[in-house]
Amino acid sequence: MCGGVSAFTLSRLPPIDSRMNPLELPEIAAILADFLCRPDLVRCMRVCRVWHLSFLPLVWRNVVISQGRPHPAMQVLGRHCQFVKELRYHVDLWHEYGPAHCPNASSLTVFSCRDLAPVDIELFEQQISHFMIHGMDHWVSLHSILQQPFPLPNLSKLELDFAVIESDHSTIFWNLCTRLDSLIIRAAAITEMPDRSLTFGRLKELTIAANPMIMLNQQLDFITQCPNLTYLHWKPWERISPDVVGRFASHLARGGMPNLRTLHSTDLVASDVHLSKIISGIRQLWDLGTPGCEPGQLSFTALRSHFSWLRKLDIKGNPNHTLSFTGPMVQEILASCPLLETLLADQIASQDILDGQPWACDRSMKDLTLWFVITPGQDEDVDFHQRHVLERISQLSNLESLCLFSDNRSTDVINLDLRLEKGLGQLATLKRLKRVSFLDNTQNMSHADVEVTYPQGGRSFHCSYFASAFSRMTLCLLGRSLSLPPPPCHWKLLILRTPS
Questions:
Q1: Rounded to an integer, what distance in angstroms lies between the CA atom of residue 219 and that of residue 241?
Q2: Which of 326, 406, 336 is CA-nearest to residue 365?
Q3: Angstrom distance (rounded) from CA 236 to CA 242
Q4: Average pLDDT of 183-206?
Q5: Which DSSP helix (H) or strand (E) runs through 333?
Q6: Between 20 and 30 A from 232 (CA), which of 158, 159, 405, 453?
Q7: Cα-atom radius of gyration of the chain, to the nearest Å?
Q8: Is 343 helix (H, G, I), strand (E, B) or coil?
Q9: Is-contact 189 165, C-beta < 8 A?
Q10: Lowest mean pLDDT among 20-34, 213-227, 469-483
Q11: What is the H or E stretch that residue 177 is in?
Q12: DSSP per position, 381-406
């Protein structure tokens, strides 16, 4: 079995000979399916008999049965139930369809606008490894599920979204969590945290977000009971206070999470000292997302030891604080991290790029968010700096998303200018570029400038503006000064506006 291609499919395919088109192989079909939406998969089924047999299991591997959107009739689902791997149900349709019709489903999501009292998960007891509860417009109680003895013995991943765990069932719930590999708690109301004697040794991935009923110290106590985490996303209801950050940093410094590779926390109010302690306490850091902290020289020194395996980094500083990674620090990161795929950082000056080494992430970088500031010397040419920055960006051969932002409070700086006369044509080499974003960044691009950046369809400009900083690029995209290319070049235009 390969990528969802079942033994049923392979047994019905004709024998493979040397003259067969590679596109007729089920293994190739499975790879292609990962890049296609459901309507495209259905079209592939209609090409020929071989493709029909190859793509049939792939069309039915994910099924959504929900009110307000098209879903298969019960009889049609029954004929293809053996192909279903991921099943998503609205609770009101639970008994109408009957989950027993999908014996091979390993992932189950239940959408509900009320408590889950009518849901009986015994039909899934031996097969489900991934279970998600999603309360749509209502906090959903799990009491009916947690009343069952030893629910879902093979469960390894649990997701809760707008779910309620009452105190009467908290012990059962936390005992269930000791068997999990992944736990995601989003906007869940949990009245009691686990007993300190419990250890969640199997837990590898943990997300805690928006739980207003549990104090930060209690959340941290639970986190420290998960010694084998490789992924931690901690986003509580409120900002994480410095004393809690200090406790967390000390726990990591003592080797409390030796396997941690990914840390995300957008509400971590960490000083340079605490952030450096956190980074130093992680043995191999692959992915760090701590925007809003106060990174400085101590944090940067600690980060250097992770350059060789760092993949994703979000270190945008807090605009209300003076400390952040400087331009030379950002340049060193780009020049020293060969595996870096995503970078969100503060400003970098063109002089830093000119003085620094070539970027080591030229083949790995996919998503770049930076404030490029053109800083020529007294006798230097602005256009020379501008073209050099664009040349360096053009060397990121796998770049898919480029976000240019600026500080609208700074009126005396020169931002990167995306026009042909300023060297924009160098970016035409970025064949994988799909998205360009402008955040508080004024661009006066012409039709020709847009065409050279986007010679093919299927890409998008994304312009955002905040309060007083209105982007002239937005005016162009609204059609006032830019006539969009005719079909077949289709443009997806997305304008984000700040809520009033």
A1: 13
A2: 336
A3: 14
A4: 89
A5: helix 327-336
A6: 405
A7: 26
A8: strand
A9: yes
A10: 469-483
A11: helix 170-177
A12: -HHHHHHHHHHHHHT-TT--EEEEE-
Q: Which amino acid is at 35?
A: F
Give mean pLDDT, residues 270-296.
92
Task: Report d(CA 374, CA 398) in Å as an integer.
Answer: 24
Closest CA to 112 of 66, 154, 68: 66
By CB atoms closer than 10 A (0-12, 13-18, 19+), residue 287 is middle
CA distances from 189 to 117, 234, 239 (A): 18, 16, 18
Cα angle 277, 283, 285 (rounded to 5 degrees) comes to 85
The mean pLDDT value for 31-49 works out to 85
Q: What is the pLDDT of residues 404-419, one digit of tens each?
A: 887 655 567 788 888 7
Asked if 417 and 385 count as a contact pair (C-beta separation under 8 A), the reply is no
Alpha carbon distance 216, 205 (integer Å): 19
Distances (CA, A) of 150 to 164, 179, 287: 19, 11, 35
Residue 21 CA to residue 25 CA, distance in Å, equals: 8
H or E segment to which residue 460 belongs: strand 460-465
CA–chain centroid gap for 328, Å, is 28
Residues 411/377, Cβ–Cβ less than 8 Å: no
Is residue 18 pLDDT above 70, yes or no? no
Burial degree of 306 (CB within 10 A; 0-12, 13-18, 19+)? buried
pLDDT computed for residue 464 by the predictor = 39
Q: Phi then psi for 496, rounded to 5 degrees?
A: -100, 130
Closest CA to 452 of 474, 473, 421: 421
Measured between alpha carbons, how far is residue 452 from residues 396, 399, 417, 430, 461 in Å?
17, 16, 14, 11, 13
Per-residue CA distances from 131 to 93, 95, 127, 172, 182 (Å): 17, 18, 11, 16, 11
Cα gap 86→78, rounded to integer Å: 15
